[in-house]
Structure formats: C-alpha cells, structure tokens
Amino acid sequence: MRIGDLAVDVPVLLAPMAAVTDLPFRTVCEEFGVGLTITEFLSAHALSIGDPKTCGKLTASLDGRRFGVQIFGREPAAMDAAARLAVAIGASLVDINMGCPAKRVVAGECGSALMREPAIAQELVRAVVAAVPPHVPVTVKHRAGWSQDHRNAPEFACAMVEAGAKMITVHGRTRTQGFSGRSDPDIIKQVRDAVPAHIPVVGNGDVVDVAGYLRLREHTGCDAVMIGRGALGNPWLFARLREVTAGRPDPGPPGLDERLAVFRRHVDLIEALKRGPRVLHEVRKSCAWYARGLYGCNALRLRIWEAPDVAAARALVEDYFAQLIERQHRLGLAPEAERGDMDGAFAGNGAANDAANDAANAAANDATSETTGEAA
Prior knowledge:
Structural class: alpha/beta
Number of domains: 2
Number of strands: 11
Mean pLDDT: 90
Number of helices: 15
C-alpha cells in the first residue's frame, strides 16, 4: 500500500488511541510487525502553545522506525503549527482526527463534529497540507457520519481527498453510537467505492482477530485495516497478520511463556521511557491487558489495582503466570485452551471469584475507560 510517496508493506495499522498508543505500546506493536503506528491523538492547540503534557506525548518511534502523528482541532493556524512540530520530530505522515466521539472533543466542534462542517474540514486539510513537505502525506480518519440519519462518509471522504488527503480511514460507527453497537462494514465499502482508486481507504472497527481482518478486507475491498482495541494485550495479532497477508501460514496464538515474555518487555519499556506517578498506572493497565481472557484473570486484576508499586505488580503477574503454566502442564492443556471460556479463580474459586469479577472489571474499566476506544 502506498500513501502518497510512503510505502507501507504490511497492510495493517495501529489505531491512535488516547492514553494507549504511547511510545512503549507502539514499540511493542512495531516489534511484532505492524505496518505503521500513529501516536495517540493530540490537541493542535495544546501543541501550538507548547503545553508540556501534550508535547510530552509527541514522541518519535525508536530505532528510526516510521510513525505517524494524529492531531485534532479546528483552527487552521494551530493545525499548521502542530503539523510542523510533527514533521520536526520525524513523522512520516500527519493524520487529522475527524471522528472522535468524546463529548469534550465534540463540544469544541472538533473530531466527529467536523463531519457536519465539510467546508471547514477541507480548510483544515489544506492548512496541514501546506504546512508539511510534499513527501509527508496528510491523512484523515473519520466515522460513518454524525448519526444514523446523517451517514455522509462517502461524500465527506471525497471532499477530504479533494482538499489534499492522501489516505482515508473510516470507522464504521456514527458519532451517536460512540463505541456501542456494531461497526458497519457497508459504509466502509461505500467509501472505498467512492474514493479514487489511487487513494488508499483503511477500514476500522470491531477487528480483533485474523478472521475479522480477512472478512473486512473481503467485504469492503479496503486497502488495509486499522486495529485499536483488538491490539490491547494482543500485539502478536500483528505478527500473525504480517504472515497471513504475505501468503504464509498463520503462526497461531501465543503460548503462556510468550505472553509472559511480552508482558515483561512492555513493562521494561514503560519503566525505561516513562517517569512519575503515572508509571504504576500504566503498568497496572498492561498487567490487565496481558492476562485478559486467561484463567483467573479477574481476580488477578483486582489484586493488581491494589499493588502499591511496580515491583509488587510485576511479582503478582510473574506468580500468576507461573501458576498457569504449572496448571497447564498438570492438566495437559494446549496453550490455546487457557483462553476464552476458561476464566476462573486465581488462588481461589467459586463465590470468591464471582465477587472479584465485578470489582476487578469496575476498577479496570474506571482506569481505562478513556483508553479502550480508537480516537475516532
């Protein structure tokens, strides 16, 4: 797939997600072969005035790997300044968010609110195109539309291309849906049919496994797929898709040993690249992600959110996986048998785990509610 002059060999992208696609998470996904990562979406206004918190999230990928930066806003001057900052740190593309459904973003008439104002959206695309060098493509990510009665994605996408966008990513839900209901692949197909063939269209929404990826590509004809929530604690999905899209056999899901190894790598990156009180919060999130779907994960998550420091959280996960591996060997289970419906108690069972279930889910959801949806 080519985005302007930028070649992307593996047709799968990591979706920009607020408070998720930080440098440690992006690095893990890059190491597993994702085609391209994009930063979490960043306020153009905040970047333009040098807000330290926002500027701290504007990070280049490690080891010279290519990456994109996603910005949002509605002031051409701020978008210009933010795009120049992205290029200054080496961004290979600049993506404009026109799909975020969050109330705080829509209240500022940004994100998916721009789908009701295509003329202003075009003005923003033109401003960013003028701000970046010709070899840096400008792309747009948007939704199916504002509501079920206002699904204007095909027309909106064509308007963005007319303004200079070199790639369109479509999330198959409307703004009013948020992340409820189902993503509609038909609207993605309509965008692919409407946009000129040389402009790649990327499908997004509800893809969490290899089969879902293949279904969306076949149904819509999209050039690539962008994966968000399906990648949480599941970076090997990108390795599997890299192989499948190259015509090689699917290597299948990871075993427990590999899960533990990737958890260690992710936490090592968090500790190396982050500072301050948020480090423990980020480690707790990663603990929950890598245990998701495994036997006893709910009770583990409850204990993780009570861990006083990073060392304690890591120790809990190490002990958890040691128990799982011992149990797997004792019962003669295949690695994939540890997933799905086998959720149960960690160091306990029955009613104790039932009580832990709701509490752990509540704790994890409170901590990650802003992070588990794609920015668009």
